[in-house]
Each structure stands twice: as C-alpha cells, then as structure tokens.
Amino acid sequence: MEKIIVRGGNRLKGRVRVHGAKNAVLPIIAASILPSRGEILIQDIPLLEDVKTITQLLSSLGISTELKEDCVRIDARHVETTEAPYDLVRKMRASFLVMGPLLARKKHGRIPLPGGCAIGSRPIDQHLKGLEAMGAEFEIGQGYIEGRVPDRLRGARIYLDVASVGATENIMMAAALAQGRTVIENAACEPEIVDLANFINAIGGKVRGAGTDTIRIDGVDFLRGTEYCVIPDRIEAGTYMAAATITRGEVFVEGAISEHLNPFIAKLREMGVQVLEGENGVHVRAEGELKPVDVKTLPYPGFPTDLQSQMMAILMTAKGNSLLTETVFENRFMHVEEMKRMGGKMKIDGRSVMIEGGQTLSGARVKATDLRAGAALVLVGLVANGVTEVTELRHIDRGYVRLVEKLQGLGADIGRVTEEEEEQSLNIEHSYA
Ligand SMILES: CC(=O)N[C@H]1[C@@H](OP(=O)(O)OP(=O)(O)OC[C@H]2O[C@@H](n3ccc(=O)[nH]c3=O)[C@H](O)[C@@H]2O)O[C@H](CO)[C@@H](O)[C@@H]1O
Ligand SMILES: C=C(OP(=O)(O)O)C(=O)O
C-alpha cells in the first residue's frame, strides 16, 4: 500500500503550474468517438488515472488510441464494438459519457451501470431522459444498460430537472450528429461544458449557447478530426491556492483562469487572503489570522463542490465558526471524520457542517475517501503538528498529476512511499542506531 507522508509546518512559497482539466478532457476524449473522418490530437492533457481509463475504454471499443505524457491521439474511423467492459467502467463514473457518442455514431451502446460512489448515489436519469427524447430506447438488465436507436437520433427540446454536467455533455455529444436541432434547457454552465462545445465545433459541429443555461445544437451528417488544447484545471488550481492559504504562504498558480474561480476567490478575500488576478495565473498570499466564512456549494457559477473539502481544510484554521453547506451531492462529507482524527472540531447537521476553527491540529493516519477529500487531508497535514499519513491514494491519482512533487516544489515536507520502501528505510535507521 502506498501512502503520502506530510510533516506539517512549512510555509509554501513559489510557483506551480496547473495541468489541463480532468473534467474537460474526459468528455472530450468521449466525444472523439464522434468523428468518422480524420484523426484527433488532444493536447495539454493531464496524464491521470481517469484519463488512462477512458483512453483504454476507447481502445476496448476497437478505436485506435495513443496516449503520451501530455497528449492523446485518437482515430475513431473504425469502431469495432459498442460494448464497454465492466472492469474499466467500474473505475470511473465518467465512463458513461461514451453512451451519447456511441448512440449517435453507431446507434447502439451497452455499458455497465455506473453505480454509486463515495460521494452519493449519482443517478443517470437525466442522461437517459435526454437521449430518449432524441429517439433512443433503453433496456436495463444484468447490471448493464443497453441503448438502441431504431433510425437516427433526432433533435429535441430537453429540459433538465437538474443542471447535470454529465447529462448536458452526453446530450450535447449525441445531438452533434442527430437530425435537426436540439435545445437543452436548464443546461449546466460549467467551463468544461464550454470547452466540450468548443471541441465539438472544432470537429465540425454546430453548438451555440454553451456557458448559458440554454444550449442549441444543430446536428450535422459527419464530424472530422482536429487538434485541440484543453482548458486548465480550475479545481487543481483552487487546490494549490488552498495550499498557499492554509500554510499562510505566497504562491503563484500559473495557468489558473481567475474567472473560472470567482466564488472561491471571493471567499478567500472575505477571509482576508490577498488574491491578485493576472493574465497568466493567480497570485495568493495569506498571513496571520483568517476570518471564518459561510460557504454553500452550487452548480457553476456558484461555489464548486469539488473545492468543498479543500475549503473545509482552510476553515479549520480560521478563527471562529464557519458553516459549510453541500447542495450538489447528497453525501460528500466522508472526509469530516478523517479531519476530526487530526483535531478538527466540526459537526454535521444534515447537508451542513459547522466548523469550529482554530483548534490545534495534529498529524494522524487518515484515508482519502474521494479524490478531493484526499487532497484536503494533505492540506491539513501541511499545517498539522507532526506527521500525517494519507492512504487510499488511488482516489488522489484520479485527479492530481504529481501532487507530491508540485507541493515539494513549493517547499512542503512531503513524500510518497510504498510500505516496503518505508520498512526498508526503518531497517536502515535501526542498523545505524
Ligand atoms: C467528470 C466530471 O465532470 N465530474 C464532475 C461532474 O460530475 P457529474 O457530471 O457526475 O455531476 P452532475 O452535474 O451530473 O451531478 C450533479 C447533481 O445532479 C444529480 N443528477 C445527475 C445526473 C442525473 O441524471 N440525475 C441527477 O439527479 C447528481 O446526483 C448530483 O446530485 O460535475 C460535478 C458537479 O459539478 C463535479 O463534482 C464532478 O467533478
Ligand atoms: C467528483 C469528481 O469527479 P468524478 O465526477 O469523476 O467522480 C471530482 O473531480 O471532484
């Protein structure tokens, strides 16, 4: 078992560069199933476990893929099969994003049901509702969901009951090759939706209105290859801004787009953190006592749920009580018990957590319960007295490229070891003792 070991106490300083956005590149790779002509080259990708999984998923469909350190090449001229393997889908919920493109391109898709995960039940009813309105028919059995399109997908007017990111993306991708116009109302507005729309347009599609709650897609007969760069990861950027804040450090987060981080920046400023928004990134400087604040997660442009646990880590170091409310996911407080093990004083009440900041924090053995929770525990470890060990790193690896190395670059006392390596180093210490 691997773990991250952090010794708290260092004030982080310096410059860190963010990678391409996980939540942009996953749907864009799924959308690469759509072109029947030419090759796709996606650049600035983060080489994360999730990116490897979705690329393998495309390969398992017989699509030609080549994944490198910072780019992926995809040639979907030939799609051999439309059935996704369970072993890949179970690793990552975003796998369901291949349903829309498969139905549009091949009129069939059979995908294992994505199931629940550490942050809640995460239904797919809005994906299905949208695709059904466009003429797809679904059957569920033996843990799989099978979709068929008797003729060709046709444009439809779809109102989403919840502004789901994944449902908006699946419908947008399917609509790109459908007959006629699709209108998605109450669509999600996240920057990753805009990036997917830009990608679809770059391969010859016609998407308008992405970034607002009404998206119009005019279907075309075929799509073709292109080269495309994904947007920087706003959640990774926010995590390094949180690292600067919690350690009362000073960090320039290169590549961070401040407009994508407005609610997070507003809350940091409310707490007394200095944030300077530049063209190439965001500069964060924190000192002394921070004020407590209340935070509520909401769909974009509200405060992102994917920065909720990192914000909670910061609030543990503020002077006074803060109330943090999670409205996007039903069960995204699994990290609270782990944070309590490090001396955090907090109480869950329904969808809110009351955080009594300013307690003495101490290192402990803790486990990542989801990818952002894992990062948040590392953040607490940066300021806790003594040593923190974070396990279940597979979660962190889904969302962060070289987290340990990037924090080391900012002066953190942090390392990643396997149990064998740790045992070996202990044996060496003993033999010198
Ligand atoms: C790969 C990716 O991009 N993941 C992001 C995406 O996840 P994802 O696309 O899964 O999130 P959604 O926006 O779909 O989910 C938001 C809420 O809508 C509910 N819902 C969703 C679909 C549906 O058919 N029915 C339904 O009720 C969910 O249970 C949840 O409560 O957006 C989330 C919300 O910003 C982020 O936390 C995730 O990091
Ligand atoms: C919840 C997240 O991702 P996913 O939807 O892929 O689980 C996240 O990125 O914080």
Q: How would you describe this structure to a colleague?
A:
This protein is α+β, with helices and mostly antiparallel strands. It folds into two domains: about 1-10 and about 290-430, Enolpyruvate transferase domain (UDP-n-acetylglucosamine1-carboxyvinyl-transferase, Chain), CATH 3.65.10.10; about 20-230, UDP-n-acetylglucosamine1-carboxyvinyl-transferase, Chain (Alpha-beta prism), CATH 3.65.10.10. The chain is about 35% helix and about 25% strand. The protein has 15 helices and 23 strands. It has helices at about 20-30, 50-60, 85-90, 100-105, 125-135, 165-175, 190-200, 235-245, 260-270, 310-315, 335-340, 370-385, 395-400, 405-410, 420-430; strands spanning about 1-5, 15, 35-45, 65, 70-75, 110, 135-140, 145-150, 155-160, 180-185, 205-210, 215-220, 225-230, 250-255, 275, 280-285, 295, 320-325, 345-350, 350-355, 365, 385-390, 415-420. It has a four-stranded mixed beta sheet with strand order 21-22-1-23. A four-stranded mixed beta sheet has the order 2-14-16-15. Strand 7 (about 135-140) and strand 8 (about 145-150) form a beta hairpin. Helix 8 runs parallel beside helix 10 (about 310-315). The mean pLDDT is about 95. The structure holds uridine-diphosphate-N-acetylglucosamine and phosphoenolpyruvate. Phosphoenolpyruvate binds near residues 94 and 306. Uridine-diphosphate-N-acetylglucosamine binds next to helix 1, helix 5 and helix 6.
